[in-house]
From TrEMBL:
PROSITE patterns on file: ABC_TRANSPORTER_1, ABC_TRANSPORTER_2
Organism in which the protein naturally occurs: Modestobacter roseus
Protein name, per record: Branched-chain amino acid transport system ATP-binding protein
Keyword Mitochondrion set for record: no
UniProt-recorded Gene Ontology molecular function terms: ATP binding; ATP hydrolysis activity; branched-chain amino acid transmembrane transporter activity
Length: 251
C-alpha cells in the first residue's frame, strides 16, 4: 500500500484498500469440487457481497476462508498476512469473525451468556463492549436475561451478529443473514451493517442469495456459479446488468 502524500505512518487503513484477499482457492468435498480457483478481494470499510444460486459455493467459500474447510490449493491473506487454514483462535485474534449459516445459538444459555462466547478468544472485553452491542440492538438488550431459545428469528440473527462483534473484528464474514426473515427486519439489519462499516470502518463479506437486497447495501458484488467467479463489479453496475441478473441472480 502506498503512503498518502504527507500522511503519517499512524493513519488508519484507507477505505477500499485490500483487507482480505483470496487467491485461486480450491476446495472439495470428496469428488464434489465446491470451489474451483476462486480469487477475490474485500476492501477496508466496504461491504462486499458474494452472490449466487443454491450450491454456487458461497458457504464453502466462507468456511474455507475461516479455516473450517481445508482448501486443496490457494491462499487467503488478511491485511497481507497469510492466514490460509489458520486455527480459529488465530483468525479471531487477527480480526476475522464468521457468522455461519443458520444463526446457531446455545439455546439454554441466556442472551448475555451467548454474547460472552463471542468474547472468548479476545482478552480484554469489558462492559463497554457489551453495552455497545446492546446499544446497536435494543431488542437484544431487553432480552439479555432470557434464554436464547425464546428469541425470534430476527432477534437470533441480531444476537449472532452481536456475538461476532464482541470478538472486535476488522473483517466480518456473514452467511445469509436475511434467510427467512421479514423484509422489514432484513432492511433493519442491513442498515445497521452499513452504519458499522461507515462509522467504524468495519469490513464485511456478505454472502446472500437475496441479491437485490444485498446489492442495495453493498459497495461491490461478486457472483459465484458452480464454484467459480463469473462477475466482479461495483454493486451499482451489477444492479444495472439485466442479463447477468437474469442469468445468475434470479431477479
Ligand atoms: N458437507 C458437504 N459434503 C458434501 N458436499 C457438500 C457439503 N457442503 C456443500 N456441499 C456441496 O458443495 C457445493 C457448494 O455448496 P455450498 O453450501 O457452498 O453452496 P451455497 O452457495 O452456500 O448454497 P446455498 O445458497 O444453498 O446455501 C454444492 O454442490 C453442495 O452440494
Ligand atoms: Mg450457503
Amino acid at each position: 500500500m502506498t503512503e498518502p502524500a504527507g500522511g503519517s505512518t499512524a493513519v488508519a487503513p484507507r477505505r477500499g484498500s485490500t483487507l482480505l484477499e483470496v487467491s485461486e482457492l480450491t476446495a472439495a468435498y470428496g469428488p464434489v469440487r465446491a470451489l474451483d480457483g476462486v480469487s477475490l478481494r474485500a476492501g477496508t470499510g466496504e461491504i462486499t457481497a458474494v452472490l449466487g444460486a443454491n450450491g454456487a459455493g458461497k458457504t464453502t467459500l466462507l468456511r474455507t476462508i475461516s479455516g473450517l474447510v481445508r482448501s486443496s490449493s490457494g491462499r487467503v491473506t488478511l491485511d497481507g498476512e497469510d492466514i490460509t487454514a489458520a486455527p480459529v483462535e488465530v483468525m479471531v485474534r487477527k480480526g476475522m469473525a464468521h457468522v455461519p449459516e443458520g444463526r446457531g445459538v446455545i439455546a439454554e444459555l441466556t442472551v448475555e451468556e451467548n454474547l460472552r462466547v463471542g468474547a472468548l478468544f479476545r482478552g480484554k472485553v469489558g462492559r463497554a463492549e457489551f453495552d455497545r452491542v446492546y446499544d446497536l440492538f435494543p431488542r437484544i438488550a431487553e432480552r439479555r436475561d432470557n434464554p436464547a431459545h425464546t428469541l425470534s428469528g430476527g432477534e437470533r440473527q441480531m444476537l449472532v451478529i452481536g456475538r461476532a462483534l464482541l470478538a472486535q473484528p476488522r473483517m466480518l464474514l456473514l452467511d445469509e443473514p436475511s434467510l427467512g426473515l421479514a423484509p422489514r427486519i432484513v432492511a433493519q439489519i442491513f442498515a445497521l451493517l452499513r452504519e458499522l462499516v461507515d462509522r467504524d470502518g468495519l469490513s464485511v463479506l456478505l454472502v446472500e442469495q437475496n441479491a437485490r437486497s444485498a446489492l442495495s447495501v453493498a459497495d461491490v458484488g461478486i457472483v459465484l456459479n458452480l464454484g467459480r467467479v463469473v462477475a466482479t463489479d461495483s454493486a451499482a453496475a451489477l444492479l444495472a446488468d439485466e442479463q447477468l441478473r437474469h442469468a445468475y441472480l434470479g431477479f
